[in-house]
Amino acid sequence: MGKKSFKPGEIAPKSGQYEIVGPRGGKTGIERTVTKGEPLPPTRKSGEKYNLIDPTKH
Hints:
Elements: E1 5-6, E2 16-21, E3 27-34, E4 49-55
């Protein structure tokens, strides 16, 4: 796993699209737009985390 995962409630280090991934790293296809400095929203299931997949360019 090359990407750093973030837990729900953690402060987003960068603005952009974050994908929810399962407890074992499986993709869910669900994305959330989060602004830098804001907490990541709750996930649907326990153990899910976020990966930054598309950082904002400006």
